[in-house]
Design goal:
- The complex is a heterodimer of chains A (about 950) and B (about 375).
- With about 950 residues, chain A is α+β, with helices and mostly antiparallel strands.
- Helices cover about 65% and strands about 10% of the residues of chain A.
- In chain A, a hairpin with a 5-residue loop joins strand 14 and strand 15.
- The longest helix of chain A is centred in the first third of the chain and has 191 residues.
- The radius of gyration of chain A is 80 Å and the shape is flat.
- The longest helix of chain B is centred in the first third of the chain and has 24 residues.
- Chain B folds into two domains: about 250 residues, Purple Acid Phosphatase, chain A, domain 2, CATH 3.60.21; about 120 residues, no CATH class.
- With about 375 residues, chain B is an alpha/beta fold.
- The chains are: A alpha+beta (about 950), B alpha/beta (about 375).
C-alpha cells in the first residue's frame, strides 16, 4: 500500500492541509514542534479504522479545539491493483466517500464504502499486522524503549492474535488473545513456581496428602502395636501355665539327685584321709633316702680331692724344670742381639761418610762451572763496553743519511737549473792559439768550449787578453736557490758532525757494525748467565764457596786435600781459569765427572751394607724378645700351678675332716637301715589309699554330681524364665491398659478419612494444575507457530539493511518473538541489551523498515519514523541514509520521516521534503469554505502536483 | 417371654464419604451427625424395649467398632445405655473380641457402665432373670478356630421346663458365608437341631448389618444394624422384637434408623436430562441424612458438562454426602463450545486443537479453563 496524498481539514490543530508523499522512497516532513506532523500521519489510521459514526476517544481527540466542526480526512491510496480516494468526516456532518479509480471505477458511500476499503486492504496486504504496526509507529524510535524490539513483538502478537476483526475495531484494544496467554500463565503460576516447584493450592494438597499418609501410617502402626500386644499377651498366658507344670516336675527330680549325691560325699572324705596318710609316709622315706645318698656323695668327694692334690704337685715340678731351660736360651739371644746392633751402627757411620763426600764433590763441580760462566760473561761484558766506546763517533742513522742525500740532490738540481738559464760563452781556440783558458780551464787549440755564464766567467789568453763575463740580473734568482741549497746541505752535514755526504755514509756503516758486535756480546753474556743477572750468579758462587769452606771442628781438611783439588777461594785466585777459559775448564769438568761417578758408587755400596747390618740387628732383637716372652709365660704358669696345688690340698684336708665327723654322728650302716624301713611303710599306706579310691570311682560319683548340678541349673532357669514371663506379661498388660484409653482406633479412622479426602483434593488440584499447564503450552505453541512464519523473512530483511550500517560480517539472532536477541559482528556476538544506544537505535530502525516488507511484500506500507537517530554519530548517519535508500530502492516502499531537525536527514536521498508550517483557522469562527492556506503552499518539492488531485476535488 | 434382639452397633465407626476434618480438628459435620444418629438409634431401641415390655435387650456382637475406640465413644455409649429400663447384655464380637484389650473390661467403661448392663465376655449360660437364660458364645480373638455357637450348643442339655433359653452368637452363617472353609462359620443345621431338641429356643445372631432370617426358620436370624452403615446393605436400621418360648417364637422388626445410604444412576445426553437430574436431586427426602452415590453416563458437550458440574455443586452442601462417578460420562466439545469462546488468531487454533482431542481428559480440562479465562476476561 502506498499513500499518495493526504488532506486534513479541521483535524486537531490543523485547519486545512494537504501533503503529497513521494510515491516511493523517503518523504521528510519537517516542521517545528506541534505543527501537526504526527497528526498528518495519524489521520490515516483514523480514516481506515473508524467508521464515520464512531465517537471513540481517538475520534473525539481529533476534533479541532474550540470549533464546531467535524474532523475530516481524505487520502489517496494505491494498494495492489487498486487506486482509490477515500474521505471521511466524523462527529459533525458525518460522511464517508470512496472513489475507486482503478482497476474498475466504483463509487460508494457510508458503511458500504468503509467495508469496501477494509476488504480491499485485507485482500492486498496483512491488514492485522499493519494495524498493529501502525500503533507502534506512533512510538518514537529514539525513546527509551527503543522501538523496534518489544514494540514490534507486541505488534506481531497482535497480528498473530488475529485482530483483523470487523471494522470499528479499536487498535490497541485487541490484545485479548495475548491476555489469555497472560492469564494462562497466571493460572499456571498459581500451582507452579519456578522450576515446576509446586506452590499455592497444589503445594498445600501435596503437603496435606503427605501429612495424611504419614498420619495413617502412624495410626496403623499404633493399632498394629496393640494387636501385637494382644497376641503377645495370649502367648504369655499359655507360657505361664506351661512353665508352672515344668517347674513342679523339675523340683521332684532335683530332690532325688541331691540325696544320692550327699551319700557319696562322706566316702569321698575317707579317701582323702587315706591319701594324706600315704603322702606323709612317702615323705619320711624320701628323707631317709636323701640322707643315705648324701653320705655316699661325701665319701666320693673326699677321695677325689686327695687325688687332685697329688696330681698338682707333679705338675709343678715339671714346669719348674722347663722354666730354667728357657731362661738360658733367653740370655744367649740377648748377647747375639747386642753384637748385631754394634755392627749396624758402624755400617751406618760409613754410609753417612760416603754421602758427605759425594755432596762435597757435587758442590765443587757446580762452583767451578758457575765461576767459569761468570768469568766469561764479565769478559764479554767488558768487550761490549769497549765496542760501545769505540763506536761513540758521529751517529748517522738511515733516516738522517737519506735526508742528507735528498738535500744534496736538491743542490745539484739547483745548479743544473742555474746553468741552463745562464748565457754561454763559446770559446774557439784556433790552431795555434795556445794557452787560451776559459774560466780557468785550458782550451786546447782546435777545440771549442762552451762555458755557461752562471757566475763571473773569465776567458783569458794569458798575457794577451783577459775577458771577464758577468751574468746579468736574469740569473740572480737561480743563483740564490743554489746558494740556499748548498747552505742547507752544509748545515745538515754540520749537524751530523760529518764533513760531507761521503763521510756521513762511512759513519753510518761504522755504527751498524758496532751495534752488531754489541748484540753478539750481549747474547754471549745472556747464554753464560742463563737469564740471571751477574749479581745473582755471584751470590750463588759465594754461597757454594761458603759451603765448601772447611769447618775447623769437622773432619780435617787434609782428608779432602788428599784428592789434590784446590779448595774454596783458591778457585778465584787461579788466574788460569780467568785468562784461559777454554781448555783447562773442559779437562776439569771431565775429571770432576769421573770423580763424582766413583763417589756415587761408593755411597750406594755403603748404604746397602748399612741396611743389611740393620736388618740383622732387628732380627736378633726380635729373637731375643720372643725368648724373653717365653720365659715370662713359663714363670706365670709355674705360679698358677703352685696356687692350684695349694687349693687342692686344702680341699682334700677339709673333706676328710668332714667325713670323719659325719661318720662319728651316724655310721653308714644305720643310714642304710632307716632308708629301707621307711620305704616299705610308704608302700603299704599307698596301697590302702588306692584301694579305697578305686572303690569310690567304681560307683560313678561324677555322673551323679553332674546330674545334680544340671538339675539345679534347670530349676534356676525355670525360675528365671517364670519371672521373665511374668514381668513381660505385666508389661504387656500395662501397655494394653494405657493403649485402651487412647482411642487408637478413632485416630486411625480419622486418619484414613483424612487421607481419602486429601487424595481427592490432591487429584482435583493436580488436575486443575495440569489443565493450566496444558492450556498454556498449547496457547504458547500456537502463538509461536504464528510468529515463526514471520521470523525468517524478517531476519533476512533486517540483516540486509543492517549490513549497510555494520558491514558484511553482521549476523543477527532473532527469537520467535521477533526480538533481536544478539548481534554478531566480526565473529563477536553481543547480546542486544549490551549494545550501545546508537546501535540499538540503528537496529531498531532497520527492524521497522524490515517489518514494512512483511506487511506488504509487494509495495510495503508507509513506515513512519518519528524524529529518530538522536544517538547516531555522523558516520553512522551517513550509512543510515544508505539504509533508507536500500529500503526503498528497487521497491515502491514509502518511508515518512517526521523531524524538527532536518539536518539530521540531509544525507538521506529524500524523494521529497515537505516543510510544514502552522495551518491556522481563519480568525472568525464562521465556517468558511475559503481557508487561508488552502493552497499547498508548504510544498517545497519541485515535483508538480499530481494529477490525482483532481478527482479528490471533484468528490469533495 | 419378650426381648429385643439387636447387634452391630459399631459405635466409633466413621464413613469416609462423609468427609473428614482437617488433621487436628474434630470430624466433619456430616460425620459428627452420623455418629450422633447411631447413638440416637441406640436410645431409640431402648425406648422400643421399654414400650414393648421386653425382658431384656441382647446385643449380639460388635457393640463397638473396635476395642481401641476412644474414651469419648465409650462414655457416650454408656450414657446412651443409662436410659435403658431393662437389662442389657453385650456380647463381644469380631470387632470387639474378648481378648486382653477388650473395651468393656477397660477402666473407662467399668467406671461409667450402668448396673443393668452385663458383658457376656465368658462363654456359657447366664441367667438374666429366673426362667430366662442367655447362652453366650463370645469371640475371644479376631480369628476363632471353631464354630463358637456350635461349641456352646454341644455343651448344653435341653433347657429345664419353665426356662426360656436364648443363644447369643456372632459370625457368618454357613448358608451366607462365601468362605466354606472358614472354621468359625456358624452351622445352621446344628442350630436347627438345638432348637428342635429344646436346648435353646432362639438363636440371636450378629455380624450381618441387614435384617435377615434363615429361610424357613424365623428363630435363627440376624437383627441387622440399628442404623445404616454401608451402601451395600439391603435392609438396615431395624431391631427385632422377639416373643420366644418353648413352643416357638414370633419375630417382629421395628425400625429405629433414620439415615439412608442410597445409590442412583443417571443417563445424561441432553440439557433435558440435566434438568431431570436436578429435579430428582431436589426431590430427595431428608437429604441431610442421605449419602448418595450417583453413577452418570452418557455424552455431554463442554457447556453441558459445565452445567452438570454446576447442578451437582448446588446439591453437595445439602446432602450428607454426594459421590459422583463420571467414568462412564463422555465429554465431547462441539463447534459451538469453541465458538462461544469468541476467540480468533492463535487462541482460536489452540482452542480447536484442545477440542479435537476429546478423549484426552486433560485437554478437556484445559478447554474448560480456557472457557473460564475467556469468560472472565474483557471481551473485545
Amino acid at each position: 500500500m502506498r499513500l499518495l496524498r493526504i488532506r486534513l481539514t479541521d483535524f486537531r490543530g490543523v485547519h486545512d492541509r494537504e501533503v503529497h508523499l513521494a510515491e516511493q522512497g523517503v518523504t521528510v516532513l519537517e516542521g517545528e514542534n506541534e505543527v501537526g506532523k504526527t497528526s498528518t500521519v495519524a489521520a490515516l489510521d483514523l480514516l481506515v479504522d473508524f467508521r464515520d459514526s464512531s465517537t471513540a476517544a481517538e475520534v473525539r481527540a481529533a476534533a479541532p479545539a474550540g470549533r464546531d466542526a467535524g474532523p475530516e480526512v481524505e487520502a489517496e491510496i494505491v494498494t495492489g491493483p487498486y487506486r482509490l480516494v477515500y474521505r471521511k468526516r466524523w462527529l459533525r456532518r458525518k460522511l464517508t466517500e470512496l472513489s475507486v479509480l482503478a482497476p474498475r471505477p466504483e463509487q460508494l458511500t457510508g458503511r458500504e464504502a468503509h467495508e469496501r476499503v477494509l476488504a480491499i486492504l485485507d485482500e492486498t496486504m496483512d491488514l492485522s499486522l499493519w494495524r498493529a504496526l501502525r500503533v507502534e509507529q506512533h512510538t518514537p524510535l529514539g525513546q527509551a524503549d527503543l522501538g523496534g524490539q518489544d514494540a514490534l513483538t507486541r505488534a506481531l502478537d497482535r497480528a498473530a492474535s488475529g485482530a483483523s476483526g470487523a471494522g470499528g475495531t479499536v487498535p490497541g484494544a485487541d490484545a485479548a488473545a495475548e491476555d489469555l496467554v497472560d492469564r494462562a500463565v497466571a493460572e499456571v503460576r498459581r500451582y507452579h513456581g519456578g522450576h515446576h516447584r509446586p506452590v499455592g493450592p497444589l503445594r498445600e494438597a501435596i503437603d496435606r496428602l503427605a501429612a495424611a499418609r504419614a498420619e495413617v501410617e502412624a495410626a496403623e502402626a499404633s493399632v498394629a502395636e496393640v494387636e501385637r500386644d494382644v497376641a503377645l499377651r495370649a502367648d504369655l498366658d499359655r507360657e505361664v501355665s506351661t512353665l508352672t507344670v515344668e517347674r513342679q516336675g523339675q523340683a521332684e527330680r532335683a530332690r532325688e539327685l541331691e540325696d544320692r549325691w550327699s551319700a557319696f560325699e562322706s566316702r569321698r572324705l575317707e579317701v582323702a584321709a587315706a591319701a594324706e596318710r600315704a603322702e606323709a609316709a612317702r615323705e619320711r622315706a624320701r628323707r631317709a633316702t636323701d640322707r643315705q645318698a648324701e653320705r655316699a656323695r661325701l665319701v666320693s668327694r673326699a677321695a677325689g680331692t686327695a687325688q687332685a692334690a697329688d696330681a698338682a704337685d707333679t705338675t709343678i715340678a715339671a714346669q719348674e724344670e722347663r722354666d730354667a731351660a728357657r731362661r738360658a736360651d733367653r740370655d744367649e739371644r740377648r748377647a747375639a742381639w747386642e753384637a748385631a746392633r754394634a755392627a749396624a751402627t758402624e755400617a751406618d757411620a760409613a754410609s753417612r761418610a760416603a754421602d758427605d763426600a759425594l755432596a762435597t764433590a757435587r758442590d765443587r763441580g757446580e762452583l767451578a762451572d758457575l765461576s767459569g760462566r761468570l768469568r766469561r760473561a764479565e769478559a764479554a761484558e767488558a768487550t761490549r763496553r769497549e765496542v760501545e766506546r769505540a763506536a761513540a763517533g758521529p751517529r748517522v742513522d738511515a733516516a738522517a743519511l737519506e735526508e742528507l742525500e735528498e738535500l744534496d740532490r736538491r743542490l745539484v738540481r739547483a745548479e743544473a737549473e742555474l746553468a741552463a738559464g745562464a748565457g754561454t760563452v763559446e770559446v774557439v781556440a784556433h790552431e795555434g792559439a795556445a794557452g787560451l783558458t776559459a774560466d780557468g780551464e785550458a782550451v786546447p787549440p782546435g777545440e771549442t768550449r762552451t762555458v755557461p755564464v752562471a757566475g763571473p766567467v773569465t776567458v783569458a789568453v794569458p798575457g794577451v787578453v783577459e775577458v771577464r763575463v758577468r751574468p746579468g740580473l736574469d740569473g740572480a734568482e737561480a743563483r740564490r736557490r743554489v746558494e740556499r741549497a748548498r747552505e742547507e746541505r752544509d748545515h745538515a752535514c754540520a749537524a751530523l758532525g760529518v764533513a760531507d755526504l761521503a763521510a756521513a755514509r762511512a759513519a753510518r756503516h761504522a755504527g751498524e757494525d758496532a751495534a752488531a758486535r754489541v748484540r753478539e756480546l750481549s747474547a754471549v753474556v745472556a747464554r753464560e748467565l742463563g737469564g740471571r743477572s751477574t749479581a745473582e750468579v755471584r751470590t750463588e758462587v759465594d754461597r757454594l764457596a761458603e759451603r765448601l769452606r772447611p769447618e775447623p771442628d769437622a773432619k780435617p781438611p787434609a782428608k779432602r786435600r788428599a784428592r789434590g783439588q784446590p779448595d774454596g777461594p783458591a778457585l778465584f785466585d787461579d788466574p788460569a781459569l780467568v785468562e784461559d777459559p777454554e781448555a783447562p775448564d773442559e779437562e776439569a769438568r771431565a775429571a770432576r765427572a769421573a770423580e763424582l761417578d766413583g763417589l756415587r758408587r761408593a755411597a750406594a755400596a755403603t748404604r746397602d751394607a748399612a741396611a743389611a747390618a740393620r736388618r740383622v740387628a732387628e732380627e736378633a732383637e726380635q729373637a731375643w724378645r720372643r725368648a724373653d716372652d717365653a720365659v715370662r709365660d713359663a714363670e706365670s704358669e709355674v705360679a698358677a700351678a703352685r696356687t692350684a696345688g695349694a687349693v687342692a690340698r686344702n680341699d682334700a684336708d677339709r673333706l676328710a675332716a668332714e667325713l670323719a665327723e659325719a661318720r662319728a654322728g651316724s655310721p653308714d650302716a644305720a643310714l642304710d637301715a632307716e632308708a629301707t624301713d621307711t620305704l616299705a611303710r610308704a608302700r603299704r599306706t599307698e596301697a590302702d589309699h588306692e584301694q579305697r579310691a578305686a572303690a569310690l570311682a567304681a560307683d560313678d560319683p561324677d555322673t551323679v554330681e553332674a546330674l545334680v548340678v544340671s538339675a539345679r541349673r534347670a530349676t534356676e532357669s525355670l525360675t528365671t524364665r517364670s519371672a521373665e514371663v511374668e514381668r513381660r506379661r505385666a508389661e504387656v498388660t500395662g501397655r494394653l491398659q494405657v493403649a485402651g484409653g487412647e482411642g487408637r482406633h478413632d485416630r486411625l479412622a480419622a486418619a484414613r478419612d483424612e487421607l481419602a479426602a486429601a487424595e481427592r483434593e490432591h487429584a482435583s488440584v493436580s488436575r486443575r494444575a495440569a489443565a493450566a499447564v496444558r492450556l498454556h503450552t498449547t496457547l504458547a505453541r500456537h502463538r509461536d507457530e504464528v510468529r515463526q512464519a514471520y521470523v525468517a523473512p524478517f531476519r533476512r530483511e533486517v540483516e540486509r539493511l543492517a549490513r549497510i550500517v555494520f558491514g558484511p560480517t553482521l549476523a543477527l539472532e532473532v527469537d520467535q518473538g521477533l526480538r533481536i536477541v544478539a548481534r554478531t559482528l566480526h565473529g563477536v556476538t553481543v547480546p542486544f541489551e549490551a549494545l550501545s544506544s546508537g546501535a540499538k537505535e540503528q537496529l531498531g530502525l532497520c527492524a521497522r523498515l524490515a517489518v514494512a516488507a512483511l506487511v506488504d511484500a509487494e509495495d510495503g506500507v508507509p513506515v513512519m519514523i518519528d524524529d529518530a537517530l538522536g544517538h547516531s554519530d555522523p558516520g553512522r548517519l551517513e550509512r543510515l541514509a544508505a539504509v533508507f535508500t536500500a529500503a526503498t530502492t528497487g521497491t515502491t516502499h514509502q518511508v515518512v520521516v517526521l523531524t524538527c531537525s532536518p539536518a539530521r536527514y540531509r544525507g538521506v536521498g529524500a524523494a521529497r521534503t515537505v516543510a510544514l508550517s502552522p495551518s491556522l483557522p481563519p480568525p472568525t469562527a464562521v465556517p468558511s469554505p475559503a481557508p487561508v492556506e488552502e493552497t499547498p503552499a508548504e510544498e517545497t518539492s519541485a515535483e508538480p502536483a499530481a494529477p490525482t488531485d483532481d478527482p479528490l476535488r471533484d468528490v469533495g | 417371654m419378650r426381648f429385643v434382639h439387636t447387634a452391630d452397633w459399631q459405635l466409633g465407626m466413621t464413613r469416609r464419604f462423609l468427609g473428614a476434618g482437617r488433621p487436628g480438628q474434630a470430624a466433619g459435620e456430616a460425620q459428627a451427625r452420623f455418629a450422633q444418629a447411631r447413638l440416637d438409634a441406640v436410645v431409640a431401641l431402648g425406648r422400643v424395649a421399654t414400650d414393648e415390655g421386653a425382658a431384656f435387650v441382647v446385643v449380639c456382637g460388635d457393640v463397638f467398632e473396635s476395642n481401641l475406640v476412644g474414651p469419648d465413644v465409650v462414655g457416650r455409649a454408656c450414657e446412651a445405655l443409662r436410659g435403658f429400663t431393662v437389662p442389657v447384655l453385650l456380647l463381644p464380637g469380631n470387632h470387639d473380641p474378648a481378648d486382653a484389650a477388650l473395651v468393656t473390661r477397660r477402666a473407662d467403661f467399668a467406671r461409667r457402665c450402668p448396673p443393668h448392663v452385663t458383658v457376656l465376655d465368658r462363654a456359657g449360660v447366664h441367667e438374666v432373670a429366673p426362667g430366662i437364660e442367655v447362652v453366650a458364645a463370645p469371640w475371644t480373638s479376631k480369628r476363632p478356630l471353631s464354630d463358637l455357637v456350635a461349641d456352646q450348643l454341644r455343651a448344653l442339655d435341653p433347657a429345664p421346663s419353665g426356662v426360656v433359653r436364648v443363644l447369643a452368637g456372632h459370625g457368618a452363617v454357613d448358608v451366607l458365608s462365601p468362605d466354606a472353609h472358614d472354621p468359625a462359620v456358624v452351622h445352621t443345621d446344628l442350630c436347627r437341631a438345638a432348637l428342635a431338641d429344646g436346648r435353646v429356643h432362639y438363636v440371636a445372631l450378629g455380624d450381618r448389618h441387614s435384617t435377615w432370617a434363615l429361610p424357613g426358620e424365623s428363630r435363627i436370624g440376624y437383627s441387622g444394624a440399628p442404623e445404616v452403615t454401608s451402601h451395600d446393605e439391603t435392609d438396615p436400621g431395624n431391631v427385632l422384637v422377639v416373643d420366644a418360648g418353648p413352643d416357638g417364637a414370633v419375630v417382629r422388626p421395628v425400625r429405629v434408623g433414620r439415615w439412608a445410604f442410597t445409590r442412583d444412576h443417571a443417563t445424561l445426553d441432553s440439557d433435558a436430562d440435566l434438568a431431570a437430574l436436578d429435579a430428582r436431586l431436589s426431590a430427595l427426602a431428608a437429604p441431610e441424612r442421605t449419602a448418595l452415590r450417583l453413577l452418570c453416563e452418557g455424552t455431554l458437550t463442554l457447556r453441558q458438562r459445565a452445567r452438570l458440574d454446576d447442578v451437582l455443586a448446588a446439591h453437595v452442601p445439602v446432602l450428607a454426602a454426594l459421590e459422583v462417578d463420571t467414568t462412564e460420562l463422555v465429554t465431547r466439545p462441539d463447534d459451538a463450545d469453541v465458538e462461544a469462546l469468541g476467540l480468533s488468531g492463535f487462541a482460536a487454533s489452540a482452542a480447536a486443537e484442545l477440542a479435537a482431542d476429546a478423549a484426552d481428559a486433560e485437554a478437556l480440562d484445559a478447554l474448560g479453563l480456557l472457557h473460564r479465562l475467556a469468560g472472565t476476561g474483557g471481551e473485545r
